[in-house]
Amino acid sequence: MDLGISGKRALVLASSRGLGLGIATALANEGANVLLVGRSGDKLAENCKTINAAGKGKADWVWGDLADENFVEAMVEAVSQKLGGIDILVNNTGGPTPGGTQDMSADKLDSFFQSMVLRVISLTNALLPQMKEQGWGRILTVASSGVLEPIPNLALSNTLRGALVGWSKTLATEVAGSGVTANMLLPGRILTDRIEELDGANAKRLGKSMEEVREASVKTIPAGRLGTVAEFGAAGAFLCSEPASYITGTMLRVDGGAAKSL
């Protein structure tokens, strides 16, 4: 299938590794020009080298920290200078620290709200007029399966990513008539560094080994395995494609069938 995004310009947040990098790579494999964002210049430069060596879409990078109050302004400038405009925005953020609801102090809640919710909404608002004016745009927001079934010991993530669900659905309704779609991509257990970190935290909390925690989690997945970054990235690329132009306001689960909700 031709995804129809060759030459499209994409900004992919938190793409130095993991899920963000997976989506950026998939978009570039379809011929899109991608701008990677993250806090590790070495990793970003290496990622761009790998993508560009494939000879399909082009990749460039810019340093950016979602916790920085000047993040939105910096990204708008980078889009203008390095991409010359925007067609696709992939909102992706790092995950907050594990813990229960009683670990959510006001300071911690406010800090992660700024980086995981406020910056995402503000950046989207800043770039959206370009998409509406050209009559084509894709806004993809990566969240978590925890917005459907809250994940134990991830109270902050469940709370803040849940806030983005209502926002994305409302946004999709508002911009549907202008050729812009807004969807959410919900990862289940995808093998990334983040999963390694969470399994380590759970092992410590439960007094078990990493192997025991991993085995127990895999048993809850009907597919019988963890997902791959490439599989996740492919799903993201499709939602950003031309054939997906009639798909908006949705949440797509990439979880091997793990979610028990309808």
From TrEMBL:
The keyword Thylakoid does not apply. Keywords: Oxidoreductase. GO terms for molecular function: 3-oxoacyl-[acyl-carrier-protein] reductase (NADPH) activity. It is an enzyme of class 1 (oxidoreductase). InterPro entries: NAD(P)-bd_dom_sf, SDR, SDR_fam. Its EC number is 1.1.1.100. Transmembrane segments: none annotated. PANTHER family: 3-OXOACYL-(ACYL-CARRIER-PROTEIN) REDUCTASE (PTHR42879), NADPH-DEPENDENT REDUCTASE BACG (PTHR42879:SF6). Belongs to the short-chain dehydrogenases/reductases (SDR) family. This is 3-oxoacyl-[acyl-carrier protein] reductase.
